[in-house]
Design goal:
three-stranded antiparallel β-sheet, 15 helices, elongated
Length: about 290
């Protein structure tokens, strides 16, 4: 085991980042906690930047990996970092993500001595003392009735919303579909859509009408503009992910109406939203 290389915390963070960088490498059957996706790469860069800034503020001089081995220092770091976060789920994601970063560094031969039970206790204490109210009724029941209003706001807004409701994509994935329409829309099907965790969606059918609309788009508006339009049409509490809840709810009820058994319907919907766990369908349905 070894220390991170570099004379400054910034250089040590860069060394740590490169040690666990594994984008493009096969991840099947591996439990190395390395960075296998661009989305995770961004998060881990954030975690390392955060701990560097914290260490500089506190005046710590030892190696960055030794700071990350000190439960007292890391406890203070996490407590300070979570102050700016409102949702319990966001705080838990940060703790779990930072914990996974440390696991990845440990497996890459970096000396870090901190028991993972420390992070488990942080999450447990967080849940016991900082309860979130689960937001319900996320699905948009009147989407078809108000769809034309989205197109009045902006043609691209209407297309993005239809993509999310018809295909169940996240907002970033919907944007990527439009940007890469030539390689993703083939023979009335959507292919090659990469989702969270670098997992690809199953091939999905797409209507001729929606495909034609996508091909008409020349300039994509900023996501904040899209979000603002959704709020104006469906209400201030509306989020882009609500359209994904709408897709999951509609698809599940459609499968049940077709005579598909409950457990099989849960499984199939989960695969369509690129999660591959029936429990995730239940998560969506409870909130939809």
């Amino acid at each position: 085991m070894a220390n991170l290389r570099g004379g400054t915390h910034e250089k040590q963070a860069i060394d740590g980042y490169h040690r666990i960088y594994a984008i493009g490498e096969k991840r099947h059957g591996r439990d190395d906690y390395k960075t296998h996706s661009y989305e995770l790469s961004k998060k881990r860069n954030m975690y390392l930047t955060d701990i560097v800034n914290f260490s500089k503020k506190e005046g710590y001089t030892e190696k960055l990996n030794l700071i990350m081995s000190d439960t007292i220092k890391i406890d203070k770091f996490i407590n300070e970092r979570l102050k700016s976060m409102k949702k319990t789920s966001t705080k838990e994601d940060y703790i779990r993500g930072f914990s996974a970063l440390i696991k990845g560094l440990e497996k890459s031969n970096v000396t870090i001595k901190i028991n993972q039970n420390f992070f488990n206790r942080k999450v447990k204490d967080l849940k016991n003392g900082d309860k979130d109210t689960v937001q319900l009724d996320r699905a948009i029941s009147n989407f078809d009735m108000k769809k034309d209003e989205l197109y009045i706001k902006n043609f691209t807004t209407g297309v993005l919303a239809e993509i999310q409701v018809e295909l169940g994509l996240r907002v970033t994935e919907a944007y990527n579909l439009i940007k890469n329409a030539a390689t993703c829309i083939i023979d009335s099907s959507v292919k090659n859509i990469r989702g969270k965790g670098n997992h690809y969606y199953q091939q999905k059918p797409i209507s001729h009408e929606l495909a034609a609309k996508i091909n008409k788009i020349e300039n994509l508006q900023h996501q904040n503009t899209y979000r603002a339009h959704l709020k104006k049409v469906f209400g201030n509490e509306t989020k882009t992910h609500d359209l994904r809840y709408t897709y999951a709810k509609n698809l599940f009820h459609k499968k049940i109406a077709e005579g598909i058994l409950y457990k099989q319907a849960l499984k199939e919907v989960s695969m369509e939203i690129n999660h591959y766990r029936p429990t995730m369908t239940m998560y969506y349905l409870k909130r939809a």
